[in-house]
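>> Question from a student workshop board

For tomorrow's exercise we were told to take the sequence and the ligand below, predict the bound structure, and bring the output to class. My setup keeps failing. Could a helper post the expected result so I can at least see what it should look like? The ligand is iron/sulfur cluster.
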Amino acid sequence: MAEKTLQTVLNRLYAADVPEKADIEYTLSIKDAAQTAELFAFADEIRQRHVGDGILLRGIVEFSNRCDNSCKYCGLNKTNVNLKRYKLTDRQILNCVEQVANAGIGTVVLQSGEQADLDSDWLAGIIREIKTRFDIAVTLSVGEKYCQDYALWKEAGADRYLLKIETTNRQLYQNLHPQMALDNRLRCSKDLKTLGYQNGSGNIIGLPDQTIGDIADDILFFARERFDMIGIGPFIPHPATALSDCPPSDVEMVLKTIAVTRIITKDSHLPATTAIGSVNGNDYRPDALMAGANVLMPNFTPLPYRQLYEIYPGKRCSTEAPGTCGPCIDMMANAIGRTIDLSRGDSLKKKRKECA
Ligand code: SF4
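>> Workshop helper replied:
Here is what the output should look like for this input. Compare the format with yours to find the bug.
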């Protein structure tokens, strides 16, 4: 029987087409500081080998905080009646995109809450206008929609779509999303893949009742579906939600999940999320970048709207003027011996035959 040292397990995770769940659980369970450092160093080496030293930037524009859903962990949930709702005008959105393009950033992410009455033709028009005026990749993140909507936006020029699965545990998913169904989310993700979007997923670490086995299942799902982008973030309790009294995520578990995901998925783009830069007022994005992450997402939503897009409290950079992140991001990259990569940063996965 093979020896069970951390290094042998890490080598197995890296080499396997389909890793053993037990190996993932073993790695996520390590607590010893030296072993944790060994895991992060290994993930960092794999990151360097497969995606290089450049930190890709994605300029995010949160164009509306209106949402029909009631996800129990999210401050934008519809039961939060005290939150002032907004939707940016076409002109405001295009101004934001122009700022992203002027900063030289090769990708803009258009994000909003999920609304059944989002006008698909309107969004297609915005995408077309962006593609006509700017040489920039467009990522959408507007939730679960019909395949026809995804097809319309793809045809209009959208390149990528982010739809985090949040958790693959069916019961936990149902508890957290009373109005939603895991099967529909999986259907959406499949549609996006089939339509040829660069496809994004992700999860939340530290949800109440979530186990290490659940996180291992999430990572196996990411590996099996070969996602191009995977956002892994901490649970941070929001006071205006049903989970306000729950403890926040263990940051080390978030970092270990990023590290294991990097080792297994190899060349997926993994952001050091703004959420991991906002846990208890601390910025753990550099730690994430040194544990396998390779993307940062500077925020270009104008003030004061940015403060109203509060999925979790204490969100970093919510009072800074758009476009002022440059020096801070440069400093972060310098401090860890990395460089900023302003290119589009398209998927590194081989083109899929089923989407040809
Ligand atoms: S997580 Fe998304 S869909 Fe759920 S309530 Fe928040 S904004 Fe709406």
